[in-house]
Amino acid sequence: MHTADEADALRDSIPQADGRRIAVVGAGFIGTELASHYVAAGAEVVLVGRSSMPLVGALGAEISPRLATMQRARTDARLGAAVRAITPTGARARLALSDGSFVEVDAVILAHGAGPATSWAGAPDGIRVDDRLRGPEGGWYAAGSAAYIASGGARLTTDHWDAAVAQGRHAARTILHDFMGGEDPGPYRSTTGFILSAFGTTIAARGMRHPDGSERAASWPIDPPRPDAVLTEFADADGAVTGIAGFNAGPAVVRAASAIA
User: Fold this and answer.
1) Shortest CA distance to 13 belongs to which of 26, 1, 27?
2) Where does residue 140 rank: exposed (0-12), middle (13-18), buried (19+ CB within 10 A)?
3) Hey, how many other C-beta atoms are within 10 angstroms of the C-beta on 235?
4) Least buried of 37, 99, 123, 157, by fewest C-beta within 10 Å?
5) Which residues contact 98 (CB under 8 A, 6 or more apart)?
6) 3-class DSSP state for residue 41?
7) 3 state DSSP class of 106
8) Cα dihedral across residues 71, 77, 79, 82: positive or negative
9) Phi, psi of 131 (to 5 degrees)
10) Residues 6+ apart with CB under 8 A from 12
11) Which residues of the chain fall short of a pLDDT of 70?
12) What is the 8-class DSSP label of residue 134?
């Protein structure tokens, strides 16, 4: 489940979800929203995710468990389990999971994220770039899901279209600097964001959570206040704010994003 054509094919293949048992493989952005859609349509959803802390790399250790709790409350969530095999059984399918369990379903939807289509560049796992989005060879520049910045042994990448647009603009300014004498744009800093809407809950974030950084409760007020709202900010090794994430705190995320370094 990556493209509009695949979404159309999915709609055609499951025109009536009420009463059906559907496995969604992948408990991230796409998988969670798909699960929410099919639960609302009356299906029983088995949500399979390899991590017991869904989206912790993007949302942090405070919000990820809340997402997991929500997933378990609304689906038959199998978090911390991977799919070992999918076997057709007549009109149904049988999933063998890494925890030793088996699941019988009417349909299986794969929603386990994207991979870079960069084998043509000799980099099947993505093109490594510096902090100005220059590739390893002279004249190479890359942006979006095709690129990753190596930082402290970690890969920094953001698989969202608005991040690809922002990185493309930054790479263009770097090209103008390198070849036309334009102003140096400086290191790329992620300030774009995303919104995940599922099961009546909104999770939003701006910027980036660095693997070698830290997280803490944000000091920005949550307005309008909600008892279940959480606002977290991420900082780099020097303490500079690099990202904001919120659970049912969307307006606060937008306001707090001005603090991102």
Assistant:
1) 1
2) middle
3) 17
4) 99
5) 81, 82, 83, 84
6) coil
7) coil
8) negative
9) -75, -5
10) none
11) 152, 261
12) B
Residue 103's beta-bridge partner residues?
A: 95
Sorted by where each starts, the structural domains of the chain and their CATH numbers stand as 4-110 (3.50.50.60), 122-180 (no CATH), 193-259 (no CATH)
Confidence at residue 52, expressed as pLDDT on a 0 to 100 scale: 96
DSSP states along 200-234: TEEEEEEE---TTSEEEE--S--SS--TT-EEEEE
pLDDT value at position 3? 80
Cα–Cα dist 32/254, whole Å: 22
Q: Which strands form 21-25's sheet, in the order they lie side by side?
A: 76-79, 44-49, 21-25, 107-110
- Give the DSSP letter of residue 33: H
Instruction: Let me know: does 196 contact 202? Beta carbons within 8 Å.
Output: yes
Structural tokens at position 80: 């911390």
**Rg (the chain; Cα; Å):** 20
Which pLDDT value is given to residue 261? 61
Collapsed DSSP state (helix, strand, coil) of residue 30: helix
